[in-house]
Amino acid sequence: MASKKVLIVYAHQSSGSFNSAAKDAAVEVLTAKGCTVEVSDLYAMKFKATATSEDITGKVKNADHFCYGEETKLAWEAGKLTADITEEQRKLTEADLVIFQFPMYWFTVPAIMKGWMDRVLTLGFAFTHEKRYSQGIFKDKKAMLSFTTGSQESMFSANGINGDMNVTLWPLQNGILHYCGFQVLAPQIFWAPSHVLSEARGTMLESWRTRMQGLLGENPLAFTPLDCFDGEKGYQLKPEVHEKHAAKEFGLTVGIHLGKALPPNNQMKAGV
């Protein structure tokens, strides 16, 4: 891990929170292992969450019909994105691993972290039509989600009231991280820390500390490679790939399930 750079994008309002403790543990352990760790503390930074024309310095191409994706692509190419965005893009460019540390809000990331994703992962910088998914711009980088839940683990199961956590994670891990090319490591999920005793919270943090000893050497989650899809036919799975899996019990991934049972733990464990 020596000389590796890690960016922690952190979203919690309180320095006394479990999320803060998880963030601090990551900084401590990874720094001790020789990594250079940067933290973007979004609330402390008062990071702007809304994607607007104010993210561009100078004139935009089409003020009457403002298209955020196209306008920020042009601004990125011209060096006209605002300083808060370019600073985060610098951190991301330098990072070998990005850890998103947050409390799960409404089955996803807090608004301020979604704003970071919306504003920092701009078209051109983070993805293009040609460079996405397994052929994405960040294919040599790793990223992962580390988060707390308000609900017990049983509630996020295939039989639980909240539904399968693998399904909950698909939009974030496939639709954002993998879309930009990241090798996505299995999430670190701290189940309902506010509902357990302090000893149990200590055990959770110790497990996280232990995992970080070999974190950068972990294999990523499995996603279906881009070249398995036919770009000339609406990016449908190629017939030969479909036929190869026709007799198998499970689909390829949570999202590309082929009408079959979802592969167990597809978004929660590597190698499945």
From TrEMBL:
It catalyses: 1-(beta-D-ribofuranosyl)-1,4-dihydronicotinamide + a quinone + H(+) = beta-nicotinamide D-riboside + a quinol. GO terms for cellular component: cytosol. Its main location: cytoplasm. The keyword Transmembrane helix does not apply. Its cofactor is Zn(2+); FAD. SUPFAM superfamilies: Flavoproteins. The enzyme apparently serves as a quinone reductase in connection with conjugation reactions of hydroquinones involved in detoxification pathways as well as in biosynthetic processes such as the vitamin K-dependent gamma-carboxylation of glutamate residues in prothrombin synthesis. This is Ribosyldihydronicotinamide dehydrogenase [quinone]. It comes from Champsocephalus esox.
